[in-house]
Write a structure and sequence with these properties.
The complex is a heterodimer of chains A (242) and B (240). Chain A contains four helices and ten strands. Chain A is α+β, with helices and mostly antiparallel strands. Chain B has three domains: 60 residues, OB fold (Dihydrolipoamide Acetyltransferase, E2P); 75 residues, Beta Barrel (OB fold (Dihydrolipoamide Acetyltransferase, E2P)); 82 residues, K Homology domain, type 1 (Ribosomal Protein S8, Chain: A, domain 1, 2-Layer Sandwich). Helices cover 19% and strands 31% of the residues of chain B. Chain B is built from four helices and 16 strands. In chain B, strands 8, 9, 10, 11, 12 and 13 form a six-stranded antiparallel sheet that branches. Chain B has a four-stranded mixed sheet with strand order 1-6-7-3, with no helix packed on it. In chain B, strands 2-5-4 form a three-stranded antiparallel sheet, with no helix packed on it. The radius of gyration of chain B is 20 Å and the shape is flat. The chains are: A alpha+beta (242), B alpha+beta (240). The interface between A and B is medium-sized, with 37 and 32 residues.
């Protein structure tokens, strides 16, 4: 949230600067199994965001101090490529990428049946190749498809979506200008089949009514993205004879 | 020609609903009511419904609902026949890479040779492949191998080809029929291990043919093209 309240983000006809309505999502496309060396992989294109996720394992957890005797640990590494934004990003970990890696790992741990693989580690690598607001959501979605592609048992898939507030109006799926100059951002990880929430963050302020409306938009978008996720997995594996 | 140790395919034959249209399910997908049925592998009972926990083909047999995964990691079970590669050697034991999450341990007492303490390297060095059986797996995934048994030995010749674990049953066929057909066609010795490794030994041209067939299975196994590829080879060899 940049906090520049005087930037006009809604047009006079009520639509947003890119022509979307308030409850309209940017176009999403997903492809599963794009990396031959990984056990599972996926690429998510969400608007201008491009996120690639690769899953390796389960494998022996190293160093041994991170091992859990009764379950697997999920090791997530979220990274933005230096060329993913207009200003070059210094390569390597920073405070933001550590935070996103941590919340993503915790969100994925709630859906993966980690108790099936004691003492193991499941490595999830998320690379953001192009960024235009909402990269953590695109990363989580890509990670969920990659985990399914790798054959890791899960209770449900997890879908990352975000809503927010611009010019006192709740909108779905903020783009870069809306994220920078808007009033609030509400990224969530939703389990589409059960309707549970695996992670939720909020930047800025939302009233209860605004929050409820934002969550309504998020659930609607999550169900749409889930269909695209399932379709991507089916496209990869659909039998020739069916 | 045959191989004396390749007969483990019988215990986990492909149990698909032959002829029926199969349904591809994704994790979290509701696959039906749970009343009167049992959850098999890849299925979870939740709120009187079964949900899939894996991406795979839905399978229902004898009131057991399960998902045959499209992709899965090798999880060792006691009795599995495996092709292992030595990863580490100690004075009294070997550690094997068995294509699973954890390395397996072969103590010198379970080796087929009389091994003196400190002379383990004379029998198996790092990078050597061996045919072994899983003696024991505990709940923490500690894995002990044995090489005491008929046909279990160091693999000195031939090549080892990796295939996804979920395609092992397809490669074996019912009662090892597919492996037998490939053996008869190519005159190669073939051992399909449970850990997704296939040992092939024969003359160079035939080994190349077998590797090509296995690659077809790896690339297009989910499209049921493998039997066609074997059939095409049979016709080609029949003409020559």
């Amino acid at each position: 949230m940049g906090g520049y309240g005087d930037v006009k983000l809604l047009r006079d006809d009520g639509k947003r600067l890119d022509g979307r309505t308030v409850d309209e999502m940017r176009p999403v496309s997903i492809e599963a199994g794009i990396l031959p060396a990984a056990d599972g992989s996926a690429m998510v294109t969400h608007g201008l965001n491009v996120a690639v996720a690769a899953v390796y394992g389960p494998m022996e957890a190293h160093p041994r101090k991170i091992q859990r005797q009764d379950r697997a640990v999920i090791d997530v590494r979220y990274n933005m490529a230096p060329f993913s934004t207009g200003d070059r990003i210094r390569p390597g970990f920073n405070r933001r990428s550590r935070e996103i890696s941590k919340v993503t790992a915790e969100a994925l741990e709630s859906v993966v049946l980690v108790e099936r693989y004691p003492r193991s580690k499941i490595r999830v690598e998320i690379e953001i190749l192009a960024a235009e607001a909402g990269t953590r959501c695109a990363g989580i979605t890509a990670a969920a498809v990659a985990l399914a592609d790798a054959g890791i048992p899960m209770r449900d898939m997890i879908v990352g979506v975000a809503s927010g507030k611009i010019e006192d109006t709740v909108v779905l799926d903020l783009d870069k200008a809306e994220d920078n100059y808007g009033q609030a951002d509400l990224p969530v990880g939703i389990l589409p089949n059960t309707g549970e929430i695996a992670f939720l963050q909020m930047d800025g302020d939302l009233s209860i009514e605004e929050y409820n409306l934002a969550m309504e938009y998020n659930f609607k978008a999550a169900s749409e993205i889930h269909e695209i996720m399932v379709d991507a997995l089916k496209r990869r594996y659909e039998r020739g004879d069916n | 020609m045959g191989c004396p140790v390749a007969g483990t395919g019988e215990k986990r034959m492909s149990e698909g609903q032959s002829g029926a249209e199969q349904r591809l399910v994704t994790p979290g997908m509701v696959i039906g009511p749970s009343t009167g049925k049992h959850a098999g592998s890849g299925a979870l009972a939740q709120n009187e419904e079964f949900i899939a926990t894996r991406l795979g083909w839905l399978n229902e047999q004898n009131d057991v609902v399960s998902v045959r995964p499209i992709n899965s990691a090798y999880m060792p079970r006691s009795g599995d026949l495996i092709v292992g590669v030595v990863a580490e050697v100690r004075n009294n034991l070997w550690f094997f890479d068995v294509n699973g999450p954890f390395q397996a341990l072969l103590p010198m007492s379970l080796a087929p040779w009389k091994v003196e303490f400190g002379s383990t390297r004379q029998h198996l060095g790092i990078g050597d492949a061996a045919l072994a059986r899983v003696q024991e797996v505990d709940e923490a995934h500690n894995l002990v191998l044995t090489m005491k048994g008929i046909g279990l030995r160091r693999l000195n010749e031939g090549c080892v080809v990796a295939i996804p674990v979920n395609l092992i049953d397809t490669l074996r066929g019912d009662n090892n029929s597919m492996v037998s057909r490939i053996r008869d066609l190519t005159d190669c010795r073939i051992i399909v291990a449970d850990n997704g490794r296939v040992w092939v030994h024969g003359d160079a041209d035939n080994m190349f043919t077998v590797r090509g067939l296995i690659q077809t299975l790896v690339d297009e196994g989910h499209m049921n093209n493998f039997e066609d590829a074997v059939h095409a080879l049979e016709q080609q060899r029949g003409e020559n």
